[in-house]
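Teaching note: in complex prediction, the entire set of molecules is handled at once rather than each chain in isolation. The prompt given to students was simply: 'Predict the structure of this complex.' The entities are:
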Amino acid sequence: MQAMLLTSCFAAALLASLALKYWLATRQMRHVAAHRGAVPAAFAATIALAAHQKAADYTLAKGRFGLWSTAFGAAVLLGWTLLGGLDALNATLRDTLFDRFGGMAYQLALLAAFALVGGLLDAPFEAWSTFRIEQRFGFNRVTWKLYLADALKGVAVGALIGLPIAALILWIMGAAGALWWLWAWAAWMGFNLLILVLYPTVIAPLFNKFEPLADESMKARVQALMARCGFTAKGLFVMDGSRRSAHANAYFTGFGAAKRVVFFDTLLAKLSAAEVEAVLAHELGHFKHKHVLKRMAAMFALSLAGFALLGWLSGQGWFYRGLGVEPNVAAPNDALALLLFLLAAPVFGYFVSPLLANLSRRHEFQADAYACAQASGADLAAALLKLHEDNAATLTPDPVFVKFYYSHPPASERLAAMQQLGAGLA
Ligand SMILES: [Zn+2]
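The expected output is the structure of the full assembly:
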C-alpha cells in the first residue's frame, strides 16, 4: 500500500519535472531564436551581430542537446528504479559476493558497479557535448587522448577517494545504532572539509598545471586590491585552462589565510589588467558578504535534513519496494538505501531549485555592488560583456527560464543595476 503510494508519487514527480523541464527549455529556445535577428538596443554599441548570433546558435544547440539528455536521464532513472535495473544488479552482486566476502565487500561492489554503469551510460553524452557542440563553436581544446586520460584519472581518483568514504559511511550505518544518520552526516561533513583542503593542493594539480602569477604589475594590482579589501591570500596562480577549453574563469579556493586565487590563463589573455581586478573584486564581494559561508551552512543543513530523512526511510520496506527494489533479507540494505535515495531525491528536489537560484542571483548583485565600490564599475561591466561574448552566452534569455535556473542574473540586469550605482558603461 505505502509502496504503491511511493511509486505513484515518484512517477508523478518524475513526469511533472520532465514536463516542466521541456516547457522551460522550449520557452528559452523560442525566445532566443526570436531575438536572434538583432542585437538588443542596450548592447548595440558593444556587441557585434555575428557574436550575438553565435550566442543564439550556441544556446539553441545546447538546448536541443539538453532535451535529448534529459529524456535519456529520465529513461535511465526509470530503468534503475521501477523497471528493476538496480534490483537485478543488486541480486547478482549479493548472490555472488555476500556469502563469500561479507556485507561490506558486497555493498562496496554494488556502489562501484552502479557508479561505473552510470558513468558509462553518461559517457556518450559527455563526449558528444565536448566533441560536437563545444567543438563546433570553437570552445573545445581537448584531444581524444587527453579526454580519455582525464576519464581514466577521474575513475582512479574517484575510486581512491570514493571507496574509503563509502566504506566509512556504510560502517557507520551498520554499527552506530538508531542515530547512525547523525554520525554519518558528521563524517560526510568532515569529508567535505577535507576535500576543500585537498582539492586545490592535491586533486586539481593532477589535471592542470598551476604556476605562480608571473606578471609583476598584475600581481601588484591584485595585492593592492586585496589589501584594500582586507584579505590575504597564500598565492596567486595561473591555471592552464586553455588545455581543455576556451571558456574563461577565475576562482578562490581554501580557507582563511590559506586562500588561493586561481586565474585561468584564458581569462588573463582576454581581459585587461583593470578588468581582471574588477572580476576579482566581485569574487572578494562574495567573501565580504559571507556568501561562501552561507552557501556552506546551507549545504550542511540540507545534508543534515537529507541524512535524517534517509535514516528514517532506510528502515521502511516500502521505501525499497516503492522504488522497484526488493530489500535484502540476510544482507545489509544500507548501500541500496543510499543509492535509492540518491536516485529519487533529485526528482523531488528539482521543484525547490528555483529558490536556490534566486538566492544565488541576489548574491551576484551584492558582489557586483561590492566590486563597483572597490574597483572600477566600468571595468567590471566591460569584463562582463567580454566574458559573455567569449562564452557565447545569450543576452536575450527567456525571463521565466532565468527565474527558474539562472544562478547569475542576465547581463542586461547586472549592467542596469551597476548603472544605478553610477558605475556602468560610459
Ligand atoms: Zn559571482
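Point out the following to students. The beta strands are 210-212, 235-239, 250-253, 260-264. The chain is about 75% helix and 5% strand.
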